[in-house]
Amino acid sequence: MIRRLPPLYACLAVLVCALPLQAQEKVKLRMTTIVPEGTYLFTAFSKRFVDNVARQTGGRVEITAYPPGVLAPPFEVYKAVEDGRADMGHAPPALIYQRDPTMALFTSFPGGLGIEATMHWLYQGDGIKLLEGHHRERMGLHPLVAGIATTEIFAHAHKPLRTAEDMKGLKFRTLGMWAELLRGFGAEPLATPTSEVATALERKVIDATKMAGPADNLQMGLNKLAKYVMVPGAHLPGGYFTVFLKAEAWDKLPAETRAQIETAARITSFDSYLEKGKLDIDAMAEMRKGPNEIVQLDPRFIQQIKEAGRAWARAKAAEEKAKGNPWTERVADSVFAFQDKWEANKDYRM
User: Fold this and answer.
1) Which of 138, 155, 205, 299 might form a disulfide with 230, Cβ 3.0–4.6 angstroms?
2) Using omega within 30 degrees of 0 as the cis cutoff, is the peptide bond preceding 232 cis?
């Protein structure tokens, strides 16, 4: 004897059978990254994001993170997603700032927002909206912030660096936008490969180097190779990684799946920020136990770095606007307004 379901339950049964077909279809994505497998950033950012997505989607979205060189070289992560070699990429926006200087302003740049202020700008200000609008219009990509970095150490050096005058004639290993600004302070920026930095510093081929945050630099042993450790990291107060995929691919995902991946990205950002912050504090404590001298940058020098960073941004915004790209100016205006408001009203904070 066949038992018939009441009308209400019959309707629900139809819905349960119909909806999950789309929602539960397994999505497999290949993600290219810029950091070697097994490194802290690969584990804390890329692998954490992959695991969080699997957890949030109940395994319906399966992402495989590949280290650089498998799907694409590290500096081609954006291009690899655009041309289809990879489904997703994971990198800091500033990686391709020379292609579009707006990308330098999204993350923390010399004299820019500190990482706490950056997070407020992203999640409570215009940051995410501008990031998405820019990437979609300029690159056809949809970005997700997934991994918050902490403030870098300004330099490990063989002499104390406090003022702009101390930078003159210095052979300073660095990369990116900061290298451009260093020349204005009379230093000689050198793009020494990461694998050669320790040897170059030890042999005094370079006078100073910036690398990353305290925990990363301690792991590399830079504190053992140069006596002086300069703080704070005014050249890069903080930063973050984004995951990006083609906008059309993102838009085709079910709304529920998009929301779950967004949650996974946010969890990745906050967990990585808290974890790295604790590691960096422990690392600074460890450096203070040894023979290192922790040197504070002169506030006037910090202000000069901020002014140089803004001047660079304004000049690039004018150049890009003349080319028909208004985004550099839009992002600069938003960041600077938020920074000014933050700094003018943060005196109540500890």
Assistant:
1) 155
2) yes
Q: Is 277 exposed, middle or buried (0-12, 13-18, 19+ CB in 10 A)?
A: middle
Count CA atoms closer than 13 A to 322's CA, side-chain side.
6
- Could you tell me which residues come within 8 angstroms of residue 275 by beta carbon, excluding any fewer than 6 positions away? 44
40 occurs within a structural domain: yes
Tell me whether residue 14 is in a domain.
no
Give the residue carrying structure tokens 């204005």: 184
- What is the dihedral sign for C-alpha 182, 186, 191, 192? negative
- The domain in which residue 44 lies consists of 26-151+237-279
Average pLDDT rounded to a whole number, residues 316-331: 98
Which is nearest to 208 in space by CA: 162, 159, 280, 152? 159
**Under a CB-based contact definition with an 8 Å cutoff, are residues 65 and 33 in contact?**
yes
Across the range 30-55, mean pLDDT stands at 94
Q: Number of helices and strands (H, E) in the chain? A: 14, 11
Among 75-89, 127-141, 173-187, whose mean pLDDT is lowest? 173-187
**What average pLDDT does range 198-206 have in this prediction?**
96
Burial class from Cβ neighbours inside 10 Å (0-12, 13-18, 19+) for residue 101 reads: buried
> Total structural domains in the chain?
1
What pLDDT digit, counting tens, does each position of 282-304 carry?
Answer: 999 999 998 999 999 999 999 99
Task: Identify whether the C-beta of residue 153 lies closer than 8 Å to the C-beta of residue 213.
Answer: yes
Whether 336 maps to a domain, the answer reads no
Q: 69's torsion region: left (phi>0), alpha (psi -120 to 50) or beta?
A: left
What does the pLDDT read at residue 8? 40
Query: Which has the minimum average pLDDT: 167-171, 194-198, 282-286?
Result: 194-198
Q: 73: how many CB neighbours lie within 10 A of its CB?
A: 13
Q: What is the residue whose two structure tokens read 């579009």?
A: 100
Strand pairing class (208-209; 155-157): antiparallel
Q: Is residue 65 over pLDDT 60?
A: yes
- Please name the helix (run of DSSP H) or strand (run of DSSP E) that holds residue 85, with its range, or none: none
16 pLDDT exceeds 70? Answer: no
